[in-house]
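DM from R.C. (forwarded with permission)

"hey, sorry to bug you on a friday — could you get me a structure for this? deadline for the figure draft is monday and I only need the backbone to look sensible"
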Amino acid sequence: MKSQSTRLAAITFLLCALALTVFSAANSVTLDSSRPMGEQIQAFIQWYGELDPRDKAQWDAALDRMAELRGAQEDMLVGFADFSSGTVYVLPKGKVYHLSADCRYVRSNPEASGMALEDAVGAGYERACSVCGD
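My reply, with the result:
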């Protein structure tokens, strides 16, 4: 389950990436933290709707790339959020601990359980999972 801070970090990342993309496309959009986000999103949609087709194509490519990056960022943040709390996940018959509850091995095993990293190491879990622990 994604925490509110994880979602906030992902939104912040998206907005920063959006701002950078705008500047690199020689267009400008100003985000104002004192204005409601919904109002700014509507202004952006209107501005985007008025772009010529060539600029829209550049925006579409940039937004697609940002969506890919956001997905990777969210995956990383979910794993970091779990690990920063000191919780790792273990499987009863495994030798490795998992840093993310979202790891495919943890999600697919109903017997997975969370515990402190120190406890997992003390119980014989030898290393981090190669999928979620890299």
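R.C.: lifesaver. Residues 87-128 form one domain.
me: no worries. The helical segments are 4-24, 37-49, 53-84, 104-107, 117-122.
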